[in-house]
Amino acid sequence: MNTSTSTPPRRSFRSLPRNVWATTLTSLLTDISSEMIFNLLPLFLANVLGASTALIGLIEGIAETTSSLLKGVSGWLSDKWGARKGLAVAGYSLSAVAKPFLYLATSWAGVLVVRFADRIGKGIRNSPRDALIADSVSAEQRGAAFGLHRAGDTAGALIGMVIALAVVLATQAQAVELSRETFQTLILISILPAALAVVVLIVGVREVRKVRASEDGVRLKGALNPDFRYFLGVIALFTLGNSSDAFLILRAQERGLNVAGVLGMLISFNLIYSVFSAPLGALSDRIGRRRLLIGGWLVYGAIYLGFAVAQTAAHIWIVYALYGLYYAATEGTAKALVADLIPPEQRGTAYGYYNMVVGLMALPASLLAGVLWQGVGGWGGFGASAPFIAGAALALLAAGLLTARFVKAQGATSDASV
Asked: CB of 48 within 8 A of CB of 180?
């Protein structure tokens, strides 16, 4: 894994190629559309449709698992065909078409169908898009490129949250629970940025022609070298404790935040995430990916313990805002690390496996969180703090395992140089 401490040029962000900026703008517009509605979806399910936390966890888990299975296939296809852009366009287009149908949802099953279709779109697009970004830059700029992309993605989420907050304040400023009418208004507003995102991707991104992978080059055995296989295992363990953020939103409401307060909390989170993503991504180019990833997981463990012990709405708001530091340090860094470990002709496949593992663990993670919170059948669960204590413990274990591998690799390098 990359542990180089060389300093990239100061103009690294300005010199990033057109594809990075175009995919960043596409993600920004998509997140404006998605985040103004999907962050409120748990409240719509709980407040309007009366769904339980276990059912909300099931919906989120099924949606993310579906997406993850397709990420593996789409990544493999982008390597096999030697092309990334077409799959990315298809995925963004499907999501843009699916989301407006939430306007018609009158049951949790209807929400599940729309989430299912939207996540199919995400599953088709993500791995080819990540591979396209990695293909478009040198190794010395990977952290900066993925950091910029995450910053744009999160800036879109921030803008979407501000729009959602404005609508909530205009329609139900003092309400504790979300209304159907407010949610439907946001769905209508979300249509335009989703459509613009597809246009930007079609017009702005150019295919990066790489050597097409051979049949052997895209097989599982070829893509999973020992370092990458170990990394996937550690990621799987960490993700088991990283349940859907829907539970954090429900926790905030349980501690007393009304709908406007929840949106303000999410805005704070996205502001910190957006501001720090690009500089922390560039930092990984200098200090090494694993160091930053381990640090981010330790921050995550501390933050989840904060969610567990929080007593007031203000506590939840502060902890959730700091949660943005974890995302900023790890999301782009982990994807840059995948590119470090895998040769160019296998990157689509590798991103497929990475995204697939993360998403496949979303179902058991979300189900576990829901059951730990409210129980199942006649059992009442351990209470609202339980999912967050479990998540903190698994994060600390994953950080320890990645640290052990890092120390071992450094020791081997030292021995070889003697």
From this structure: yes
Taking the C-alpha atoms of residue 310 and residue 163, their distance in angstroms, rounded to an integer, is 28
Distance (Å, whole) CA 121 – CA 106 = 23
pLDDT, residue 26, reads 97
Q: Per mean pLDDT, which range of 146-150, 190-194, 235-239 is the poorest?
A: 146-150
Tokens representing 51 are 């769904």
The rounded distance, in Å, linking the Cα atoms of 351 and 284 is 19
State yes or no: pLDDT of 14 exceeds 90. Answer: no
Contact, 193 vs 64, CB < 8 A? no
CB atoms within 10 A of CB 21: 18
Of 282, 240, 1, the residue nearest 145 (C-alpha): 282
Which residue is associated with the tokens 């990833």?
293
State both tokens at 123.
């599953």
Decide if 2 contacts 287 (C-beta within 8 A). Answer: no
**Cα distance between residue 334 and residue 100, in whole Å:** 32
Measured from the Cβ of residue 345, the count of other Cβ atoms closer than 10 Å reads 18
Tokens of 113: 């169908």
Q: What's the confidence (pLDDT) of residue 409?
A: 64
**Under DSSP, is residue 243 helix (H, G, I), strand (E, B) or coil?**
coil
